[in-house]
Amino acid sequence: MNLAKIILALLFFCSVPSLGNHGHKNQQILSISPQIALPIGIKIWFNESGGSVMGLTTWNYGEDFASLGIGHFIWHPYSSKRASFNSGFPHLLRYIEARGINIPSWLQGRNGLYCPWSNRNEFLKEQYSSKMSELRIFLQKTIPIQAEYMTRHLQEILPDLLASAPAEERVFIYQKFYSLARTPTGIYALVDYLNFKGAGVSNSRYNYERGTGLLQVLKGMKYAPPGSTPLQAYVWSAKNALIKRVERASASQHTERWLGGWFKRLNTYLEGNIDT
User: Fold this and answer.
1) Which of 13, 24, 207, 230 is most enclosed, with most CB atoms within 10 A?
2) Strands (DSSP E) found in 20-161
């Protein structure tokens, strides 16, 4: 079988045992159970906002959109031309609705497309309103489904990762992806980093070589110290990519101040199995 057929087979036909409690073979490995999704979601929540309930509903200074949930899913106001059902929070709501889970009436259907607060000032003034409180309760209750949604996105991004890599490196990247995705802890590490630093997908060879996204971290695992486990190699590669990013940055940006926090987050990938 030639390389093109191998890649095609890897992309569309490879499946492995489920991590859920269903016991069926030939399910996609990233079809995780709620028992696994909950601790993964809590870890991501603590990484993004320290486990703060208020942190589930934020609007960062200088941005023109709200950021909601454990993954800080983007929610644009009505005035934004970028609002669509395919953007972060509206897409999450559609996923939750499709799963038959009740959501607040004011978020159902097209009502969830636009953030009801037009700007950051309006959003901050409503921090203790009944609508904001209901939103936070909803986001707390759906932490497992949010983690499941993020895991689905991780699986969906794999073809883009492979398409952005040189042909000769695709099998290696695929193999490293699934060497991690065979365990709940590895899935957490993949999902969290994708949410943290993005996919790293690009048509530019320059960006492919110098990026800090998930794609570049998987590629860089080949240079990890001999004898490293997949998770150790993954964390080593991520730290190496971020160090190089700091080294390439202008001294005036002082990006080195972020390394401690970045490394602390990456170290959570090595803390042991996800508790179920």
Assistant:
1) 230
2) 57-58, 66-68, 73-75
